[in-house]
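Structure tokens please, single chain.
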Amino acid sequence: MNILQNIDNWDKNAVAWINAHHTAWLDSLMVFASKTNVWIPFYAILLILLLRIHKQKSVFFVLGIALVITLADQTTSSLMKPFFERLRPCHWQGWQVPLHLPDGCGGQYGFASSHAANTFGLAMFWWLWLKKFYRMAWLLFLWAGVVSFSRVYLAAHYPTDVLVGAMLGAFFAWAVFKFPEKVLKV
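Here you go.
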């Protein structure tokens, strides 16, 4: 058995175990956490906080976040998912026990997770930009972790889909943050 088969087996076992431990209240919480539109008030609060802290410089932060999210989302959705064609857990037919799917299934392919890439990209960019606000940063990483876990709980992604998405989002945040400094010598 090669390493990719071992990872695939571990992923499937992890999804099966997590999915088997579902509860009604956790179903509701995970569906809520996974919906992108419910986070709009949270984003609005972050934007207001940012405007109060940095005023005119906020435009650079907003442009940076837009670039990070675009890179993370398009890389995962438009490049990786069609290239790797890894079925989401909810589309894989080999389960011995049917999965519990409180939020349906979604698209066919899941590698890598756009939710994880986008949320960890936002959290990392915020942390890099506003290092003196560490308390806010750990809350954003906690939020990104909950959103990412919700994707595994809902059987929309395997743990490695989420892990790779999170690393990709964090990398894009770092690259967008460092680009002016390293390339433009600002």
